Amino acid sequence: MFPIDRYPSLRVAYIDEVEEPNKDKTKKVNQKVYYSVLVKAAQVIYRIKLPGPAILGEGKPENQNHAIIFTRGEGLQTIDMNQDNYMEEALKMRNLLQEFLKKHDGVRYPTILGLREHIFTGSVSSLAWFMSNQETSFVTIGQRLLANPLKVRFHYGHPDVFDRLFHLTRGGISKASKVINLSEDIFAGFNSTLREGNVTHHEYIQVGKGRDVGLNQISMFEAKIANGNGEQTLSRDIYRLGHRFDYFRMLSCYFTTVGFYFSTLITVLTVYVFLYGRLYLVLSGLEEGLKNQRAIRDNKPLQVALASQSFVQIGFLMALPMLMEIGLERGFRTALSEFILMQLQLAPVFFTFSLGTKTHYYGRTLLHGGAKYRSTGRGFVVFHAKFADNYRLYSRSHFVKGIEMMILLVVYEIFGHLFNPSGFEWQKIVDDWTDWNKWISNRGGIGVPPEKSWESWWEEEQEHLRHSGKRGIVAEILLSLRFFIYQYGLVYHLSMTKKAKTKSVYGISWCVIFLILFVMKTVSVGRRRFSANFQLVFRLIKGLIFISFMSILVTLIALAHLTVQDIVLCILAFMPTGWGMLLIAQACKPVVQRAGFWGSVRTLARGFEIVIGLLLFTPVAFLAWFPFVSEFQTRMLFNQAFSRGLQISRILGGQRKDRSSRNKE
């Protein structure tokens, strides 16, 4: 924070909330009154009383709408808090404002002047470098192409300059309706274009921009943009633009806005359809019975097509605009060397990870709505993130889907032919495990934030279902039915069933599932009733359950010839079924609550979360046990200055520990 009197020309607009005596003398309670206030150093310039609360929709556009009344002149530039300016660039502003007097297409004067941005946070880490190159290509060569010749450039954020009079008489520069206008900036471009405005782009002036530098920041930003595009897909603005554009401009608008996200969603869904289709062929025995199986497996054109698709999807194509922009500005030799370095630093893995983030949040918004603003902070974030924080952020978008893909591939292999700084430091892994256990065990409740309790986080993860209609709930249930395919196919491949194809085998498998759920419910009730006052009774119950389980297992091995492969197949069959039942129960939450089973659903969900956490934590802990992995990660992810800083901090940290231990002695 800086003292406002240091900059006497600076003006700050804010909404002041005060309590005043109620004019109705029969009411003794004071009433809240709201004012739009403009202040400078130590003086209030304007103070305008508002009829009520000003922030009714999204916070950022509402703030812009309340502050625009204090602006003057015919041009209005919007600047973000994470932006910078340069003295030599400020001298070009007079030239830029003259662009309002020039008809760029020979018909209309500009209503929004687009500027390029200089991303200055690329040197912090490899992830910041990837993000910087991606953003640089978009705010330069990308927006230049959108403006001319495609004529579909809109407003993508700051620092564009608006024709103030044009937009004040046409609804302002920000639409602020809750949820639908989450990405308020692009709706200003939609509004300007629909009202016969003209959006241009100019490369001779630029403004500095600080982008996100941490993986969690980047992911939250991508999630917010994906949510915003989901709401744009459902909005009237895109519908009206599509109807009023000519054919070529309509296609350009589609593929440069919501079309990119929709195509990404279709690509990911195609992967699911392909894998589940192959799974059906394997489990049903059709793959072995196909006469042309060898011809299909040795089909060279099909292999080339799949290899090309993989080549594109791992991120090489997404790096092409960066390659072109760096080549145009700094030479193609530099562009080629940086491109090779990005591949060595696993840039395709980062872009593929980002692809998963976009797909998850875009698809969820299309199904259920409920998009919300996600604060990234955009601070100087280079520190170790706790495992619990990463789990909360990536559980549904990446971890669950990754485990589903892993189970698919494992089953197919059996029956067919076929980023976080200091993440690998042993002491931090130990701390993460302690923090994870504390978080997963804490009970939720009113006022308990998601960062402190798994129950609060779990309830928050289902908020999108509250905004969903009947069609969204039905779609969620239908999508969850895919998890029942594993059980239906795998139980007939158990050696103990002797390849029987009768329906009784499938019925018995459901009896086993309900028996497992009954045992889990018994343990949960016993823990709640006996763990505090009758610990011995509770331990006896758990001991009896364990002995019974081992007895049944030994009996099945001895009499039914149960094998290790059968045990693995049972796990692969029953785990997805339980997860599918859990998703359906969450979608039908009001019905489950009225039936009194919501506590059991929460217990089952906690058990699944613990299993997923263990699957994720085990390989990280194993790698952290080797010291060279941490060293390699530090040198690969950070530039030399940060690498030296991390090494020094570890040395100083070790010295502090030695001193503290000596003082204790």
Automatic annotation (TrEMBL):
Entry-linked InterPro entries: Glyco_trans_48_dom
GO biological process: (1->3)-beta-D-glucan biosynthetic process
Keyword presence, Membrane: yes
Pfam annotation, one family: Glucan_synthase
Stretches assigned to the Glycosyl transferase domain: 5-562
Keywords: Membrane, Transmembrane, Transmembrane helix
Cellular component aspect of the GO annotation: 1,3-beta-D-glucan synthase complex; plasma membrane
One annotated GO molecular function: 1,3-beta-D-glucan synthase activity
Membrane-spanning residues: 258-283, 304-324, 336-356, 473-492, 504-524, 536-560, 566-587, 608-628
Protein name, entry field: Glycosyl transferase 48 domain-containing protein
Organism annotation: Linum tenue
